[in-house]
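A reminder from the course coordinator: this example appears on the midterm review sheet, so study it carefully.

Given structure:
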């Protein structure tokens, strides 16, 4: 039991804190039971912590090219994701506006977008290697093209949902195309666009693991694949937990920005 700012007693938030901790505890217990019974190759939680401890307690240390702290590997991946995500936003947002504003453009390219949108990153990466001949630009190409579709579709949806009255007001006031864009279209479509940005970031983070595993790039995916080949299963679990925690943090961050944007 804690005390609030007004001096009244305040109970610990049961649903927001204790229930998630209970869920995590249950999963860890099932993990320990599984490693002790039917899946003996699976390292136990205690052994995973023991083997992973140097990577967690010194998260930014660089002991060698393939022996670095887990936060350092995550940083390599985040930097690559940031570049690919920025590229996806820069390319996807104008396409979304064109798709939402121009019926001719939509009729010409919407079927193609619907065909390309579900293509797996595992299929885009070889094409990127063919186009750019190097793993780094191929990785950026793959992240960008996989992550931009939610931005394209949500931007187009936001533009199409703008009330006709808003556009009529722009015509009555004889606003220039640039003023119509910045004063009418952009503010009205921004909430939907930001939903697309949030989804794109999640996909970019999912794609990075597959890309690094296939290209051997330094990062959390590359580290995971290297430890799998070395049969160090404890580090595979460490990578999975790190990928999940970083992905959760990115989603919470974008959700916070989105809420503030909607409230503004």
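Designed residues:
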């Amino acid at each position: 039991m804690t005390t609030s700012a007004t001096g009244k007693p305040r109970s610990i938030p049961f649903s927001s804190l204790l229930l998630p901790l209970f869920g995590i505890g249950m999963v860890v217990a099932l993990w320990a039971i599984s490693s002790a019974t039917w899946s003996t190759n699976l390292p136990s939680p205690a052994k995973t912590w023991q083997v992973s401890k140097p990577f967690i307690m010194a998260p930014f240390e660089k002991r060698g090219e393939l022996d670095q702290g887990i936060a350092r590997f995550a940083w390599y991946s985040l930097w690559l994701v940031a570049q690919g995500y920025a590229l996806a936003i820069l390319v996807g947002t104008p396409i979304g506006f064109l798709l939402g504003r121009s019926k001719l453009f939509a009729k010409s390219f919407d079927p193609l977008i619907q065909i390309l949108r579900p293509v797996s990153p595992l299929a885009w990466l070889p094409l990127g290697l063919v186009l750019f001949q190097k793993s780094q630009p191929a990785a950026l190409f793959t992240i960008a093209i996989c992550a931009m579709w939610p931005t394209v579709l949500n931007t187009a949806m936001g533009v199409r949902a703008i009330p006709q009255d808003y556009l009529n007001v722009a015509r009555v006031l004889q606003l220039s195309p640039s003023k119509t864009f910045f004063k009418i279209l952009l503010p009205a479509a921004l909430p939907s666009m930001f939903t697309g940005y949030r989804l794109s970031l999640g996909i970019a983070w999912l794609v990075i693991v597959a890309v690094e595993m296939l290209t051997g790039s330094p990062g959390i995916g590359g580290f995971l694949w290297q430890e799998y080949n070395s049969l160090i299963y404890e580090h595979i679990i460490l990578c999975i937990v790190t990928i999940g925690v970083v992905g959760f943090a990115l989603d919470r961050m974008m959700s916070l920005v989105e809420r503030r944007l909607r409230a503004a």
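The longest strand covers residues 62-64. The mean pLDDT is 89.
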